[in-house]
Amino acid sequence: MGAIRIHNVVKRYGKGPKANQVIHGVSADITDGEFIVIVGPSGCGKSTLLRMVAGLEEISEGEISIGGRVVNDVEPADRDIAMVFQNYALYPHMSVYDNMAYGLKIAKVPKAEIEARVQKAAKILEIGPFLQRTPRQLSGGQRQRVAMGRAIVRQPAAFLFDEPLSNLDAKLRAQTRLEIQKLHRELGVTSLFVTHDQVEAMTLAQRMIVMNAGRMEQIGTPEQVYGKPASSFVASFIGSPPMNLLTGQADASRFTTGSGADAVTLALPTAAPRAGALVLGLRPEHVEITDDGLWPLQVDTIEMLGAERLVHGRLGGALFTVRMDATLPPPRVGQAVRLRASPSQLHWFDAGTSLRVGD
Amino acid sequence: MVERRPWLNLLSHAVLLLGVAVVAFPVYLTFVAASHTAEAIVQAPMPLLPGGHFWDSITKALSGQISGPGSKAPVAQMMQVSLISALIIAIAKIAISLLSAFAIVYFRFPFKMFFFWAIFVTLMLPVEVRISPTYKVVSDLGMLNSYAGLTIPLIASATATFLFRQFFLTVPDELVEAARIDGAGPMRFFKDVLIPLSSTSIAALFVIQFIYGWNQYLWPLLVTTDEKMYPIVLGIQRMISGGDAANEWNLVMATALLAMLPPALVVIGMQKWFVKGLVDSEK
Asked: Where are any strands of DSSP class E within A61-178?
């Protein structure tokens, strides 16, 4: 049983009026066997949240329960969790076998069972040949596997991953991502995975939590988070290149953005949810450059990425990016082109609260 | 810097050889003196080539067949005293420093900074400065002429504590956290992780502290009055009596050679570890 319930959790450092609050009441219900990714920019509190679940940080307010048991005052070792650290935190002087067996030895698991569990984990992770080596004789990817092996042998109710892939090179990272997915399918253990990399978040998550400045901005499946971002922060954070955001005034069918000489009024393909100060969001892939488009774009730079081109320009003074198929003829730099937005793909956010408006 | 100039090679070797000669010549002279009879040494000029009585002098010194006017304690016994006190000092210094560094780095307790500075301040108070009060304490406790008196006042070591503190501070926090998740309590973590990780530092410190303990002179001079508790360094001095008395210089020199031997053996035997401990930063 590995359901994790995070209820109104607050973290502050220090006491009294000078206390520095870094997490402002986060709640999430994670069902047994789910793979949850916590993603956010650095300093958003995602690692702190994970460390509170692990028991490495005290919980200032609120409650965390694992498998139905409140663990606020339970030692990390007794929380039935296993953690994989960013720098792996392997014991440098112990062999791979001892690294994996250490926790079990302390828990006084019988020798034969330790042996069986370690061998099984080694087989799953294909680190059998390295069992007698020390961590410094292993490559980064192998160390990473050992760190996961150490987590697996504990047979915990939940795995906690603290940016475990960020020390790997790009190729290995992509490969390990797939392996973690496979591992999760095989073991079916609840997993909490912290990362700042949105690609990792999108590919690994069954549901993802997007955090910003100590608050949870959105929790949902990758499709929900990408398709219906709950705030302009989520919209700009998830997706690469990020969603274009234009601040301005909307009325029934028009949207005025920019100020002074840059001001431009755009005709909307679908009506705005309400009039007033709003932020219009539009993903780069949901705009196309076409002569009969209604919006103007001044092209600044063009990036060729192979299958596609990113056309960066300015619209009403704000930066605006369009993604176009590489087989289409690109516009010239400095040229003024016309854009057409897909009618169903407009996102609206409140200019003040930055929360999503309309559906 | 790599330079390939033959005359520079020659010059640097000449300087090195000169340095070796300056260091080695007194040792050679000690050896020569130990290999002659007492009468042969006092001839002027003193012989510069080894004589044939080396083993004779060594066995005489070791067994205490000394006819000179000074102390006649057998050197074998003095070496045993020195060895035991040097070992106690080295091992206890390392044990206490490890534990206090562990406490200072990994625990939050009241007046932590006060204790930290208290240890720091002792750096300014070597044995020589606190010698009279320490003597008073040791003598009131009845520890004169005992191993306890010879070693305990020398055991506390700020230097070693700081060395270990610096080392512990470089151990990544994640390692501590991984151990916590693995269920290792503080002492278990200390024993299973910290001590193995600091093994090279421990070895380096052992060498330094063993030699420190072995070479103690001033403190044993105060707290030992019984010949049976003389360490060898003090013993050498006790064998020489002032004035015109005919000292058996060959035996004194044989004793000096014997006194040099164990530190040299420790350094040679632990050289690899010693250097590793001082330069190794790999974790």
From this structure: 61-66, 69-70, 81-84, 158-162
Asked if residue B198 is part of any domain, the answer here is yes
Complex ipTM value: 0.82
Are B181 and A106 inside 8 Å of each other by CB? no
A85 touches chain B (CB under 8 A): yes
User: Which chain A residue lies closest to B184 (C-alpha atoms)?
Assistant: A106
Residue numbers of the domain that contains B226: 75-279
Q: What is the CATH number of domain A4-230?
A: 3.40.50.300
**Contact (CB<8Å) A76/B177:** yes
Q: Does B174 contact A87 at a Cβ distance shorter than 8 Å?
A: yes
Domain with CATH 2.40.50.140 in chain A: 241-357
Give the model confidence (pLDDT) of B185-243 as tens digits: 899 999 999 999 998 889 888 999 999 999 998 899 889 888 888 899 888 888 887 66
Residue B218: CATH number of its domain = 1.10.3720.10
Segment (H or E) for A110? none
The answer to whether position B128 is within a domain reads yes
Classify residue B30: in a domain, yes or no. Answer: no
Write a three-state SS string for chain B. CCCCCHHHHHHHHHHHHHHHHHHHHHHHHHHHHHCCCHHHHHCCCCCCCCCCCHHHHHHHHHHCCCCCCCCCCCHHHHHHHHHHHHHHHHHHHHHHHHHHHHHHHHCCCCCHHHHHHHHHHHCCCCCCCCHHHHHHHHHHCCCCCCHHHHHHHHHCCHHHHHHHHHHHHHCCHHHHHHHHHCCCCHHHHHHHHHHHHCHHHHHHHHHHHHHHHHCCCHHHHHHCCCHHHCCHHHHHHHHCCCCCCCCCHHHHHHHHHHHHHHHHHHHHHCHHHHHHHHHCCCC
Count up the domains in chain B and report the number.
Answer: 1
In a domain, B68, yes or no: no
pLDDT in tens, A193-208: 999 988 889 999 999 9
Looking at the domain covering A241-357, what would its CATH class be?
A: mainly beta
pTM flag (> 0.95)? no
Chain A residue numbers with beta carbons less than 8 Å from the beta carbon of B181 are 54-56, 76-77, 81-83, 103
